[in-house]
Amino acid sequence: xxxxxxxxxxxxxxxxxxxxxxxxxxxxxxxxxxxxxxxxxxxxxxxxxxxxxxxxxxxxxxxxxxxxxxxxxxxxxxxxxxxxxxxxxxxxxxxxxxxxxxxxxxxxxxxxxxxxxxxxxxxxxxxxxxxxxxxxxxxxxxxxxxxxxxxxxxxxxxxxxxx
Length: 163
Fold this sequence. Notes:
Elements: E1 6-12, E2 17-20, E3 26-39, E4 46-58, H1 59-68, E5 73-87, E6 93-109, E7 128-130, E8 137-140, E9 143-149, H2 155-159
Parallel strand pairs: 4-6
Antiparallel strand pairs: 1-3, 1-5, 2-3, 3-4, 5-6, 6-7, 8-9
Protein name: Single-stranded DNA-binding protein
Keywords: DNA-binding
GO molecular function: single-stranded DNA binding
């Protein structure tokens, strides 16, 4: 058994870059910043460390990201880690680690106008968006009441990498 699940809350670092592939599939990519705040043990001063994540949305989720995600938008993203490789122009192998979003929720937006209050950093009802995949379920013969998900292999994603 294995699990590849990522949960992130952060702010979009840029507007989504949208591409339409030859297969007709749509993809949107953007960066997401997550910031860890802590206190330095030796000096007692507050510190921050920001991680930047490459987010990839496919199909309907890409359309929604194109419409609603903007630089500064606070998002909750649920997805999985995917690492891919490619050869650069000099023939060197490069590796890219991305978060493939399965769903996300808009939590709010940084206000450009400081006079505009944002309650708790989120709108009253934040919409949630989800990408659906057909995941077959199999029952174990000895225990018919329990099901276990099969390894999810989305062949369409592997066929149409956006690079």
